Amino acid sequence: MSELLLIHGSCHGAWCWRDVLAELDAMGQPARAIDLPGHGDDATPRAGITMDDYVARITGSIDAPVTLVGHSMGGFPITHAALTAPDKITRLVYVCAYVPEPGKDIGDMRRAWPDQPLVPVIEMSDDGATFTFDAARLREMFYHDCPEGTLDYARPRLTPQPVAAQSRATEAQPDCPRSYIICDRDRAIPPGFQAHMVRDWPAEDVQTMDVSHSPFFAAPRDLARRLADLARRP
After folding, report:
1. Does this model's pTM top 0.85?
2. Domain range enclosing 222
């Protein structure tokens, strides 16, 4: 059994894994969640934060090999981390996340899919260095099947997303085992796009949950069980 290290997506922080961490603890599964630079409680100035900063934070947080989990945008930094420090990672798990294609950054991948539901809700800062999501559409995009109170918990914790941190492509595919959890009610990254990104993966490495883009709030026990099972795989 390896430890799970949980990585959040755009504008989120370690806080989004709150309920999953509680479930994993009850199962006896070692797990941690960290803030990427400029997110959550981390006070790093957002101007100039890059993917390299994300990767350094992840790899610097690992002492013994972990099962590394990335949600949404987090698929990119966990992939870069596996390419940078392969000895520190036993498995990558993508939770309704981007699976990088070599030579493409997040924007390239998003534009390559015909349905782009996130575009209308992205609000750029005046200097173009960060973006946020339209506050009036947070529930319908991210938390529509989550318990009452989820939006009240999430809204004040969301932070601007550094644009530069999403502009680095990968050069290769990592060699470690990889697993994917498709979220069938996702309104942010279309389920069809998720399935397309893993179209050539073995069936045993792809799972499906009937939830939104926020399975850590919508179904934390189910998600925790799946992650714990993956952490126990050889």
Report:
1. yes
2. 3-231
